Amino acid sequence: MARDRVREPKTKACFRCAQPTKVAYRVRHDASRRWEFVCPDCLEAVRLGNPLYTYGGTWKSSRH
C-alpha cells in the first residue's frame, strides 16, 4: 500500500544572513578558502569585485 506523503520543501540557511532559502550557492569568498552556502541576495555581496570569489555549485530544494 503506497502512502501519499506531502514533503515540506527543504531549505538551507544562508551562512551570511542565516535566512532560510530554497536556492543556495556554494562559494569561497575570503582568505579562509572555506566553502559556504549563501542565498541569492548575499551572493551579490560576496561576488562583485571580489578576486577571492569562487563558485562551487548550486543547491536547490527540489531537483525536479
Q: Return the string of H and E elements.
A: EEEEHE
User: What portion of residues belong to β-strands?
Assistant: 25-35%
Largest sheet: 3 strands, antiparallel
Task: Give me the side-by-side strand order of the main sheet.
Answer: 4-3-5
What is the oligomer described by this structure?
A: single chain
Low-confidence stretches: none
> What is the total number of structural domains?
1
Fraction of helical residues: 10-25%
Q: What's the helix count?
A: 1
How much is the average pLDDT? Answer: 91
End-to-end Cα distance:
25 Å
How would you summarize what this structure contains?
The chain is an alpha+beta fold.
Task: Give an overview of the whole structure.
With 64 residues, the protein is an alpha+beta fold. It has one domain (12-60). Helix content is 12%, strand content 31%. It has one helix and five strands; from the N terminus they run ββββαβ. The chain has one helix spanning 40-47, and strands at 12-13, 20-21, 23-28, 36-38, 54-60. The strands form two sheets. A three-stranded antiparallel sheet has the order 4-3-5. It has a two-stranded antiparallel ribbon with strand order 1-2. Strand 1 and strand 2 form a beta hairpin. It is elongated. The protein starts with 11 loop residues before the first strand and ends with a strand. The model has no long low-confidence stretch (mean pLDDT 91).
